[in-house]
Amino acid sequence: MTVRLTRRHALGALGASAALAGTGLYAPARAASKVTVGALRFTSHAASFVAYERGYFKEAGLDVDFRFFQAAQPMAVAIASRDADFGVTAISGGLISLAEKGAAKVIGGALQEEQGVDGQMILASVAAYDQGVTTPARLGGRNFGITTAGSSFHYMGSKIAAAEGIDDLKFKPLQKVGAVIGALKSSQIDAWSIVPHIGKALVGGGAVKHIGMVADYIPDYQVTTVFTSAQNAANEKAKTEAFLAAFARGAADFNAALVDRTEGDDGAEAMTRLIHKYVYADQPYEKASRSIVNGAMRINAGAALNMDSIGDQLSWFKSEGLVKDEVSMEMLVDDSYVDTL
User: Fold this and answer.
1) What does pTM read for this prediction?
2) Each residue of 134-156: b (16+ CB within 10 Å) or e?
3) Same-domain status, 227 and 194
């Protein structure tokens, strides 16, 4: 893919901020600025956890608290209402509608599907598998679990169905990820797609069956994005750049330790223990560590944003009547902060 530099030396500023922060010479954009970060308790949100635990947010002059959510839509609402300052999650219909109203902006990329790195899995219930749903091509007439209409799960299921020529896949909204997991394990739904740290644990425990990979249907899918309120994007440039710089440092550490494995076994162990404070924290480390390591998908360097993928997602939401036709990429994305792919 081709990388272009966005306006006003944006990524250069981020890189310089990160480098200076590492030497202790970085002058924070705003000393002790209180920031609330929305997150899910997923390995895919690890960049924020690393930036917090390793002091990168603090070095950037940000006093961070986390607010945890069960799905993407409520997080988007919290960002728009300024109950949270920054969020990291998938594009949703709610986020796009809030952007259309001038309340939210996507400002960077996070998790992305990449060939050669285990990504999101397509799962089937044991009952559906035993009935012949052994590949995504056999999903016709079946129930596919989603959190809400217009969620990333809805998008993935629709793209899979379209690629397989299936026009009767049924979507069952269950509001929370935990509820979808329960429904799949009890065969109340037939299929679902989810990040590997959850998918591999379910398959390994025999609760569900693995029938495909999302990357085979949506190559280079920008799974999650970094977003903020439109007010922050437009009027709090220093704070927003500081957040992205610290986030990018956290992502770089995560990728090195668990994706590229350049930090050795000790580095991987340290990273896994750090993430365990937030992901599967209710489980013993010995049990949780395998799932955390299994969820290590790449987080985009420098919070770079795949605009082609965002454009495809926006087009799908429009085609489904989930957002207004007049919503433009300019309404949804502020591309002044990071490189775009």
Assistant:
1) 0.84
2) eebebbeebbbbbbbebbbbbbb
3) no
